[in-house]
Prior knowledge:
This protein has helices spanning 3-15, 31-40, 68-77, and strands at 21-25, 45-50, 61-64, 83-85. It is of the alpha/beta class. Helix 2 (31-40) links the parallel strand 1 (21-25) and strand 2 (45-50).
Amino acid sequence: MNTIGAFWKKADEFAKLGRPTIAFGLNSPDEKIVASLVHSRTYADILLVGPQAIESISGFELIIDEQPEEKLASLLANDEVDGIVRGTI
């Protein structure tokens, strides 16, 4: 099996364990990243964290914060999400 096929097989196995909530840091709207995140919603609930520049993004729960780096860490430390991705922050 090729590497990509093995990845998606493993992703499907993890997806069956339950839907994690992942906070993703985003500094500004980026079409390619948002498109990738739309696809990722198949496997996880995605929460976008960033400055006011991301408030125009629709289809995701947003947390607008002046200190998005600190907010990401706080969400994880307080068990409000299952994981974080620094993204473009």
